[in-house]
Amino acid sequence: MHRPIEDYALVGDEQTAALISRDGSVDWLCLPRFDSPACFSALLGDEENGHWRIAPKDVGGECARRAYRPGSLVLDTEWDTADGSVRVTDFMPQRDQAPDLVRIVEGISGRVTVHSELRLRFDYGSVVPWMRRVDGHRVAVAGPDSAWLRSEPDVHSWGKDFATHAEFTVEEGERVAFVLTWHPSHEERPALVDPYESLEHSLEDWRAWAGHCSYDGPHRDAVLRSLLTLKALTYAPTGGIVAAPTTSLPEEIGGVRNWDYRYCWLRDSTLTLGALLSAGYLEEARAWRDWLLRAAAGNPADLQIMYGLAGERRLPEQELHWLDGFRASRPVRTGNEAVRQLQLDVYGEVVDSLALARRSGLEAGPHAWQLQLALLDFLQDAWSEPDEGLWEVRGQRRHFVHSKVMAWVAVDRTVRSMEEDPRLPGDIDRLRKLRDTIHRDVCERGYDAERGTFTQYYGSRELDAALLLLPRAGFLPADDPRIVGTVDAVQRELSHKGLLRRYSTTGSEVDGLPGDEGAFLVCSFWLADALHMIGRSEEARELFERLLALRNDVGLLAEEYDPVAGRQLGNFPQAFSHIGLVNTAMTLFAHEPHGEAG
């Protein structure tokens, strides 16, 4: 039986990340990149698909306590036994050449016997490597992959059942470090890292970065942990930010809504940029903006909703039949077929991001403006077409209201930029007319006057949590009765025990999929923002407090939450959820002194 999703913590080196459970097992790790095949895949299968557990011998349960060291992504996990207490410190150093996973065992009290079981399985658990000893190291090789395991000091290890075992004792103050290093099998072994020096350097690096956080309002620790998580989900060589480091963690246990999120979505761009800029992370915001410009370059008609870490366009979807899935949630997928979809909202997200960057002083040169005008030329006609919408539905295309509004945003931000800087070229009169046309069309065809709410798509009675973004987008003033009515309707009709679904999956054919899903966490953050904007700040704060309580013990959030079972669902940790947390904290508390709201 798989452990709950919230039982995992994250360590990473800004190029990939590992998930470590409360029982000390690394159950997911892709090497060398976030989107590479996993060498530990127990998360989506079982231990035979790869894992690495370090824990006191004969202790089958979870740890007594665990926590990140303040301001870092260094994880401490501690066990108490009848013989004493022991700590395992996990981290991935900022890589110089090759990725390293470091696990340091330290005695806290007494004398504890510790067991390590390493079961490497390349290519998502399907390939058993050849293991051998070289210069006192254990070396695993299979096809293009090679991994080296060593300990300092050296401890007795042996092979059994295609796994590498080690056993040793530690007393108070004694330490044993394990280092697992990956490299292409055709290359020479990379230089060895000193695990103890790497620990100190990692702490220094993470804490120096955390020290630049400018937010000093209530719940600063939660905001900083979310920012550290976003930093960990950044692919440092390009500045792209993955939606999550995992694939196929289910939106419904036993269901088929299992997707690969190890890519970069344009839909996240404005909210991501806003979160980074508002917290004082200008360089990260610039790197993300530059990634966005590179990814979006080309024919505007070919703009995709997502890209690979370096802007790759081809992300073919396939199913891994040998993996049973998290708690029998199949299929397990890699790649994402939604990359082929038309989602008109991404044009608005890109243009809004460029406008936000420009206002914040992140100038990008004339090529960025030329790209923006090219996107607007495409939208001149395309805005009126149906699309798959923000949520990447796999049903038929529809005239989604949120998509139309974001097309309006693209035009509106361009007009505003030209009004602020008359030197910018472009036909502003044509764009003003287009902006008015889209606005009028949405208000006439996307609004249900009888119920006093905007709808999910033209002619429907369905609602969509993305409608909560209308006041943030500036489509109508927050106090407009149509906005207030929409917030009330969404809260009433999409509420699931106080949290929000994206849209109704009951009796609806919108997404073209069977089954159900949990409450989508970022939507509840959007509700808190909208409630605050329409003057219901106390209610917004209460909702925000409830959302904070859904984080796991180390402050992480998945994509969704099941309020009935009290469990997190979906890929984990989810960038969108943590972006929502940061932005809502900024919305609610940016002008309050630290600690005023708890």
Concise description?
The protein has 598 residues and is α+β, with helices and mostly antiparallel strands.
What features would you describe in this structure?
The chain has a 15-stranded antiparallel sheet that branches. 31% of the residues lie in helices and 22% in strands. A hairpin with an 8-residue loop joins strand 8 (84-91) and strand 9 (100-119). The chain has 598 residues and is α+β, with helices and mostly antiparallel strands.
Count the beta strands: 28
The helix count comes to 14
What's the helical proportion of residues? Answer: 25-40%
Alpha-beta classification? alpha+beta
- End-to-end span in angstroms? 37 Å
Strand count, sense and barrel status of the largest sheet are:
15 strands, antiparallel
Provide key terms for this protein.
disordered C terminus; single chain; about 600 residues; 6-hairpin_glycosidase_sf; 15-stranded antiparallel β-sheet
How does the SSE layout of this entry go?
Blueprint: E1 8-12, E2 17-21, E3 25-30, E4 38-40, E5 51-56, E6 65-68, E7 75-81, E8 84-91, E9 100-119, H1 122-125, E10 130-134, E11 137-142, E12 145-152, E13 157-160, E14 163-171, E15 175-184, H2 195-210, H3 220-232, E16 234-235, E17 240-241, E18 264-265, H4 269-278, H5 282-296, E19 306-307, E20 318-319, E21 333-334, H6 345-359, H7 366-382, H8 401-420, H9 428-445, E22 447-448, E23 453-454, H10 470-473, H11 481-493, E24 495-496, E25 499-500, E26 519-520, H12 521-533, H13 537-548, E27 560-562, E28 567-569, H14 575-589
Cofactor: phosphate
Catalytic activity: alpha,alpha-trehalose + H2O = alpha-D-glucose + beta-D-glucose
GO biological process, one term: trehalose catabolic process
